Amino acid sequence: MAKVLIPAALQPYAGGQDELIVDGANVREVLDALAQQHPELRRHLFTEAGVLRQFVNVYRGTEDTRALQGLDTPVSADDELSIVPSIAGGVGAPPRPASTLPAPVSVIDSSRVASTTLTNEEILRYSRHLMLPEVNLEGQKKLKAAKVLCIGAGGLGSPVALYLAAAGVGTLGIVDFDVVDVTNLQRQILHGASDVGRPKLVSARETLREINPHVNVIGFEEPFTSENAMEIARDFDIIIDGTDNFPTRYLTNDVCVLLGKPNVYGSIFRFEGQVSVFWAEHGPCYRCLYPEPPPPGMVPSCAEGGVLGVLPGIIGCLQANEAIKLILGAGNPLIGRLMLFHALKMQFRELRLQKDPDCPICGPNRTIHALIDYQEFCGVRGEEAQPPEVEESEEITVRELKARMDRGERLTIVDVREPYEYEIARIPGTILIPLGQIEARADELNPEAEIILHCRSGKRSADALNRLKARGFKRLKNLVGGILAWSEEIDPSVPKY
Ligand code: ZN
After folding, report:
1. Quick check: 90 pLDDT over 60?
2. Each residue of 214-250: pLDDT tens digit?
3. What pairs with residue 60 in β-bridges?
4. Domain assignment present for 185
5. Which of 11, 158, 248, 472 has its Cβ near the most Cβ atoms within 10 Å?
6. Is 256 among the residues known to form the active site?
7. Considering the domain boundaries, does residue 100 fall inside one?
8. CA 356 to ligand 1 center in whole angstroms
9. Which pLDDT belongs to residue 291?
């Protein structure tokens, strides 16, 4: 028997609970029992062949069970098992003894410090740093000599860039080709209301110049891809992972491993965040932790799952802190350690990371020697990039739906969004069955009747349509464009979100 901590990403499949007491003498038995209790969890934990998915790590206390006896790792009643998927969280754990913390390491060598000078104005500006023995004039020169590349100028990139600029990092590269959207302003504090519609890079550059005109901001207004990533990253000392998708995250990792640079990693989901420093020369890389990405759609993005606005602020500040430590060569870096943060519980939890001897990119028998196609690797192409296939005869437009409603037809309209979305906006007369429950609750629907399915934009409802079709439903229709189209074309009083 053991207590199993369920991360936010998996809680919807575990009855909404964040911890469960489960029977079993080892990890395999516990996970099996868990999947028995909550059948929807099974496909998230195991492949169809019954093998534990590679993007799911199971920790007993602070130890990765892969470094113990894997699925055979024994479990006693006092043990706490944490399931740590690619985005995850947990609760408190005993602190790590100081003797086992990684040693300080700096990315700036002394010759670069020797050729760097500070003006009197800079000395005044950074005086609160210069008073710290761990920074002092030498450290401030290291900061000025340092070149840090931030992938993304969004939720994580905002605090990272703001604090690194304020701290006096001499060269700040930013890769972002996005435009500021009004929904960004809840957390992306590099940008303001007057920046909506402008490129994030333009807005970031202006904000950073205002904070510290001594910083050289280099913008790369293009997607970070296998074609340009090595060229962009080559001249920088540290890479900050401020990405929000798996293809770019694996690309960032692989670029860092191939170029021998530290990757200051951060990720966020709802109320939970992760931080680490992946540096293959000194410890594990991201692929050691997660050899494979989750299948598309299994872990929702911030746009689908939501995120507390302050969370990227906290995680991004921790990333900035790690970057500054790596520049100064001060303190114990987060190398070989994964910090999990839970904002609602206000708890930090540290897990130890092992270098995977079979890692495909940083192990001795590595199989990856150059950048690959990350869209393909993450299965994005053909799945996430394109919505699930729906035949044209299975589609209905908002105008057709409205016309039929106006004729007084009795229609079964199923809204497959989440309850919180239903609270924000709804089409009158709909039944709410979230996508995750559509199969379990299919018997609430008449398989002979015509059923119109809708969601926010039409993607999840297309998925629901295919799932119901597989269960023998024959007269299904997907509402094209979802409630967004309804708001756009039928009823502008329905808020968009
Ligand atoms: Zn590795």
Report:
1. no
2. 999 999 999 999 999 999 999 999 999 999 888 999 9
3. 63, 81
4. yes
5. 158
6. no
7. no
8. 6
9. 86
Q: What is the CATH number of the domain that holds 235?
A: 3.40.50.720
- Nearest CA among 196, 197, 214, 217 for reference residue 206: 217
- C-alpha distances (whole Å) from 492 to each of 181, 406, 484, 487 are 19, 17, 10, 5
Which pLDDT band, with edges at 50, 70 and 90, does 130 fall under? very high
Q: Using CA atoms in the order 58, 63, 68, 73, what is the torsion angle rounded to 10 degrees? A: -50
Decide which of 385, 404, 427 is a domain's last residue: 385
What's residue 1's pLDDT?
84
Question: What region does 16 belong to: left with phi over 0, alpha with psi -120 to 50, or beta?
Answer: left
Q: What CATH number corresponds to the domain at position 22? A: 3.10.20.30
207 shares a domain with 76:
no
Contact 468, 476 (CB under 8 A): yes
**pLDDT tens-place string over residues 399-427:** 999 999 999 998 999 999 988 889 999 99
Residue 274 dihedral angles phi and psi, to the nearest 5°: -130, 145
Residue 266: other Cβ atoms inside 10 A: 28
Contacts of 378 (CB under 8 A, 6+ apart): 245, 246, 247, 250, 293, 296
From 385, 419, 440, the end of a domain falls on 385
| Residue range 267-296, pLDDT digits in tens | 998 899 999 999 999 999 999 988 888 776
Considering the candidates 256, 288, 302, 378, report the single residue annotated as catalytic.
Answer: 302
Q: How much distance in Å is there from the Cα of 276 to the middle of ligand 1? A: 13
Strands 238-241 and 263-269: parallel
Domains held by the chain: number: 3
Same domain, 402 and 379: no
pTM metric for this prediction: 0.78
pLDDT score, position 50: 81
Q: Is 305 exposed, middle or buried (0-12, 13-18, 19+ CB in 10 A)?
A: middle
Q: Tell me whether residue 455 is one of the annotated catalytic residues.
A: yes
- Amino acid at position 95, single letter: P
What distance in Å separates the CA atoms of residue 427 and residue 479, rounded to the nearest whole number?
11
Distance 109 CA to ligand 1 centre (A): 25
Q: Tell me: do 380 and 449 sit in the same domain.
A: no
